[in-house]
Amino acid sequence: MTAPVQARPAEGYAGDITPQEAWDLLAADPEAVLVDVRTDGEWRTIGVPDVGGLGKETVLSQWVTADGRPNPGFLTELEAAGVGPGRPVVFLCRSGQRSIGAARLATSAGIGPSYNVLEGFEGAPGFGGVRDQTGWKVRGLPHREHTP
Known about the structure:
Layout lengths: L14 E3 L1 H10 L4 E4 L3 H7 L1 E2 L9 E2 L13 H7 L4 E8 L5 H11 L3 E6 L25 E2 L4
Parallel strand pairs: 1-6, 2-4, 2-5, 5-6
Antiparallel strand pairs: 3-7
């Protein structure tokens, strides 16, 4: 059962939602899944969103590899993690940009509804160049260190 989502309209995927709206969707819909599309290096140094309190696990699948190349196994990794049609998918990256491409590709493959998280995990840099103004972490949503 998909919970109602007030997503901002977007082209090629179900829409953009805030970090809090993402959390609310994940909490309300037992089928909803969170996919973090950042790189392995980002997961290890910055941490990952923690949806364990909702009885879920965050799916980690790099949209691009550390060298900036597209991950050719992206859709295969989603499928292996049980992400598929009819299951709401929330895509998250660092600032809400890479996750747009992931949401579009997933939608074109019949996965979703697929949403992009505005602001991402860390948000855009503030005036001092530090990512401490917006994003999943700044909004106080659960996160933890990544231990592979």
